[in-house]
Write a structure and sequence with these properties.
It holds the Pfam family PaREP1. By secondary structure, the protein is mainly α. It contains eight helices and no strands.
């Protein structure tokens, strides 16, 4: 997989290539998560899975910005969506942004975002038998959710194939991710 692509600057949020750049980043991060899982680096894999999901949200937010602007309740919220949410996807607002995307037809997205956020907590706090700082008591539980989240990410990206300018780069990254064995390591 060509990870140098991640080093390129993102196109302007107003361009069509912006969605593709985020989707490509999502796929590359997911591939890295799988590689880390295979190497037994579950906390690092959790971080990459989270980043992969966040990149997918960035692509969806840009793709659906016009619809989101219509359901935004105030001018301030519309301005925030355009200037802050789309280019940055703040972690603290991922749940609310996912719920907005659900309102326009992305069923189940906020539940998957909750899983991504749980993995983000696991990345920083590790396993927690008391479940006070992390929702995962052990690395096996986190590894299981990483694989589930990546499978959902693949499904959602494949659904976009007919809605965006699908590039060879995205196709190759998707194929490479799907070929990665997602075994039972943890």
């Amino acid at each position: 997989m060509d990870t140098e692509t991640l080093e390129n600057p993102l196109p302007k949020p107003s361009t069509e290539d912006y969605v593709n750049a985020w989707l490509l980043e999502s796929l590359v991060e997911a591939s890295l998560a799988i590689r880390f899982l295979k190497d037994g680096l579950v906390r690092n894999a959790a971080g990459k899975a989270f980043q992969s999901w966040r990149a997918l949200l960035a692509a969806l937010l840009r793709l659906e910005l016009d619809k989101l602007m219509q359901i935004a309740k105030t001018d301030e919220e519309r301005r925030w969506l355009r200037e802050r949410a789309v280019p940055r996807v703040p972690t603290s607002r991922m749940k609310a942004l996912s719920q907005m995307l659900e309102e326009i037809g992305y069923d189940g997205l906020s539940a998957w975002t909750s899983t991504a956020l749980d993995l983000h907590d696991y990345q920083y706090n590790g396993p927690d038998p008391d479940m006070a700082l992390s929702k995962y008591r052990g690395r096996e539980e986190a590894a299981y959710d990483i694989r589930l989240l990546i499978n959902e990410l693949i499904r959602r990206i494949e659904e976009l194939r007919t809605r965006i300018k699908w590039s060879d780069e995205i196709e190759n990254a998707l194929r490479a991710l799907k070929e990665e064995p997602k075994g039972k390591q943890g």
